[in-house]
Amino acid sequence: MKEKVLKLLQESDGFVSGQELSERFGVTRTSIWKAIRQLEEDGYQIEAVRNRGYRLCGEPDFLDEAHLRPLLHTSWAGREIVSFDTIDSSNNEAKRRAEDGAGHGLVVLAQEQTAGRGRRGRVWASVKGEGIFLSLLLKPDIRPENASMLTLVMGMAVRDALEKVAGIDARIKWPNDIVCEGKKVCGILTEMSAQVDYINHIVIGVGVNIHNGQFPEEMQQIATSVFLLTGKHVARAAVAAEILAGFELYYDRYMKTQDLRDLSEIYNRHLINCGRHVRVTDLKEDYTGIARGINERGELIIETENGLRLAAAGEVSVRGVYGYV
Fold first, then answer.
1. Rounded to an integer, what distance in angstroms lies between the CA atom of residue 290 and that of residue 275?
2. The pLDDT of residue 139
3. What pLDDT score does 75 carry?
4. What band does 320 get if pLDDT is binned at 50, 70 and 90?
């Protein structure tokens, strides 16, 4: 019943009386009222005015195949799309499907993740309906040691999408965060299944904070959202479509050389690390210096008191970002 009521409200330019709805569908006014309540629980905004009826004021922001597919303008990214209301992790599902034979370009979407995670096993908060939780499956013919650069390729795509759709001047924090006003708006997690000289598959997971109006106290100093930055609720499907389009464009350029020689200039232009004091923490030691951008291998070039060093992995803190002073 709620689907029928919704369709009629969507087709109407104004109010539709409860009596008209009742007569149209041959049910009681109570049944119509229950359908309206169900639609409101699903996120639809419905105005009810005595003696006038009901009017649809706003629809929930869905991110699923039905809403993403019409917006896609890609050749292979999103060729197949699967979406879930609730799942443990979109990355986990993409890896499961890869093992079952899913092809290059599969996209997994989730409204909510119960076991979302970031780098180094950190928990990634995945509140239902508030963010983009998207994983892209890749099966590239590249050497395993070249795979980590794809995280940087995705970072460029996300940054561009946020600027295009939301008007945000986002910056990239090497290697896997997108930040704005010193706070994280997106995290990227790349996972690979490989043999010594052969990649079985790569899964790149993207988590973007879109509609979040607040964060837990322990996250308030380091996390933000598109809504908190702009005061606007942008369509998640529109952002996701631009992410996939941007990634496909940059990925195709990356594949020509299997490095970032044709992309490093663009990347460095938006790199928040560049020219700033950074602290690097890796398995061997901690050191500090001034970041000078990335090289064609995607390594972060750091000018220290003892000369230039290259960071290929590890944690990099940037002064003025996430509370690091």
1. 6
2. 97
3. 97
4. low
Q: What is the reported pLDDT for 325?
A: 41
Contact 179, 232 (CB under 8 A): no
230 contacts 164 by C-beta, under 8 angstroms? no
User: Residue 175 in contact with residue 298, Cβ under 8 Å?
Assistant: yes
Please classify residue 116 by burial: count the beta carbons closer than 10 Å to its beta carbon, then call 0-12 exposed, 13-18 middle and 19+ buried. buried
Q: According to DSSP H, which parts of the chain are helical? A: 2-11, 18-25, 29-41, 65-68, 90-99, 149-166, 226-230, 236-257, 264-269
Q: C-alpha distances in angstroms, 210 versus 50, 125, 213, 234, 239?
A: 35, 12, 9, 7, 9
Q: Apex CA 216: angle with CA 210 and CA 218, to 5°? A: 120
CA distances from 172 to 222, 274, 290 (A): 15, 10, 16
Helix-, strand-, coil-residue percentages of the chain, each rounded to 5: 35, 30, 35
- pLDDT tens digits along 173-204: 999 999 999 999 999 999 999 998 899 999 99
Q: Any idea which residue has 């398995």 for tokens?
A: 283
pLDDT at 211 over 80: yes
d(CA 251, CA 36): 45
- Buried b / exposed e along 39-77 (16+ C-beta atoms within 10 A): beeeebebeeeeeebbbbeeeebbbbbebbeebbebeeb
| Spatial distance between the Cα atoms of 6 and 194, rounded to a whole number of angstroms | 48
User: Looking at the chain, how many residues does it have?
Assistant: 325
pLDDT at position 41 is 81
